[in-house]
């Protein structure tokens, strides 16, 4: 297992209309602190302001490969989403989560997204949280033209919210 994103050919960065990459490495947290907050879709609204109208999978709120769910973000109506990868982190391998999200509509509305995450423990009590997203469609072209890039900024807020919430949860346990 690698610490790179496993990109489906359709979503290869550089060949799509928009690509963003965000990463943070922080001390005094572990993948075990981060992972439950990321894969439990009911937690997202508590630490990420740019998500709403979440409909969890019928199997429950913990995202597993093949699960279908929807959520709204960046002002889009609820986007239909399917989990492409969900592998919890272990002491020797990083956690991996990825989904394909599609919003159907005319060419001004339709968007096709691949969003992937890697959560891994590093030496010296650090954790790395890495996320990348590749988008196809006219809305992606319009978002890519905005400066600063709202997708990049939104994902950085997501990372920061994950870290803040994980730190608060850890402090509560102590």
From TrEMBL:
SUPFAM superfamilies recorded: Bet v1-like
Name of the molecule in the record: Polyketide cyclase
Species name: Kwoniella newhampshirensis
Lineage of the species this protein comes from: Eukaryota, Fungi, Dikarya, Basidiomycota, Agaricomycotina
């Amino acid at each position: 297992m690698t610490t790179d994103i496993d990109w489906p050919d359709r979503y290869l960065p550089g060949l799509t209309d928009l690509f963003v990459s965000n990463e943070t490495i922080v001390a005094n947290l572990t993948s075990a602190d981060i992972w439950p907050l990321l894969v439990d879709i009911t937690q997202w609204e508590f630490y990420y302001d740019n998500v709403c109208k979440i409909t969890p999978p019928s199997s429950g709120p913990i995202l597993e490969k093949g699960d279908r769910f929807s959520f709204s973000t960046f002002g889009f109506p609820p986007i239909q989403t399917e989990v492409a990868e969900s592998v919890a982190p272990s002491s020797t391998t990083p956690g991996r989560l990825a989904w394909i999200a599609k919003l159907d509509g005319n060419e001004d509305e339709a968007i096709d997204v691949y969003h992937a995450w890697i959560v891994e423990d590093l030496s010296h009590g650090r954790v790395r949280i890495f996320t990348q997203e590749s988008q196809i469609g006219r809305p992606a072209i319009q978002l890519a033209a905005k400066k600063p890039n709202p997708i990049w900024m939104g994902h950085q807020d997501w990372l920061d919210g994950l870290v803040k919430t994980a730190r608060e949860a850890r402090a509560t346990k102590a």
